[in-house]
Amino acid sequence: MPAQRCYYEVLSVTKTASNDEIKRSYKKLAVKYHPDRNKGDEAAAEKFKEVAEAYEVLSDPEKRGRYDRFGHEGVKGAASAGAGFGGFDDAMDLFSQLFGGQMGGGRRRRGSGGGQRGNSLRTVVEIDLFEAATGCQRDLEFTRKETCQTCSGSGAKPGTTPETCDYCNGQGQVVQRAGAGFFGFQMATECPACHGSGKVVRDKCSDCRGDGRQDKQIQQTLEIPPGVDNGNRISLRGEGDAGPNGGPRGDLLVDVRVKEHPLFQREGDHLTCRVPIHYSQAVLGANIDIPVLESGGKHSLEIPAGTQPGEVIRLRGQGMPDVHSGSRGDLFVQIQLEVPKSVDGRHEELIRELAEIENTNVTPHRKSFFEKVREFFSPDDDE
Ligand SMILES: [Zn+2]
Ligand SMILES: [Zn+2]
Predict the structure, then answer these.
(1) Do residue 129 and residue 251 come from a single domain?
(2) Which residues surround ligand 2, an ion (CB under 5 A)?
(3) Which of 206, 229, 246, 344 has most Cβ atoms within 10 angstroms of its Cβ?
(4) Residue 251 and residue 324 in one domain
(5) How much distance in Å is there from the Cα of 113 to the middle of ligand 1?
């Protein structure tokens, strides 16, 4: 995966650019690289996606703030695991939002093949934290529109061919004049007779009723990369619906949810785990088994003598893998002191004996605490 360009550079604005400047610059570049003007130009399509991604981050004050502080890492959660920003469809959606459907909207534009682009399909998969750490597979089952076998996608009854639409002369769109006099303007809208395809089918294919597509059950295995985080989106280009009348396919967009784990809290690539120990273990030190996500799930941890509650022991490389580089974050073990709710018998005897010792031998830590308390209540008395 090539290094990502700086978003400010992508939009040719300075780091102090106002929202208006960012919007103006995005609009200019999006029009320049729009697929309708650059038919079949892959480099332009990439640029079109790149400026949309940059605009998506820099136009949102919260995301922009995170981007300024942490760079691309800071806004990674917003992008998808595999393919960056949600993909081509998201870029088209953003464009139609800002331009209100001029130049043809996102999904209904006419593709280079003459037909509209098929719909993108969305689905959600839920995995647990262990699966997120190791990566996993999921079998997806969904219905999508596939080219009709009977008419090969033309929508016409076998033996017949679609005719050029009379209403739009095969253009797929009609130009209407809106407004009045000097302020009038022309607006291109989809042809109501042929719905943008430029063709009409007189004798419809009986299997697809003229649409050129049929619903089909699809089973597909999804590869989920190690390190995927809750909210990531995996975009599979061209795995959505086939377009009507031979148009290009939409995408399949999979949103990943990672279930909360009872023992580990995740923050980016790091994990935190709270581990309770006994008072005696804190004082004397101990070796305890703690859970880790690695296979086997156990790690022997040395608790040094004199460990205080709340102290954090950092285990490097025991966190989550980074979804791009694979390098692992750390596990932060937070030590907690487990205090028994009640004691009896020999246990109680020992605790009482311990209490006597602790009440007579004041530890240095305790002494300084009481000195501080005294100073707090009467600051001038001692000095
Ligand atoms: Zn058909
Ligand atoms: Zn038409």
Answers:
(1) yes
(2) 165, 167-168, 191, 193-194
(3) 246
(4) no
(5) 18
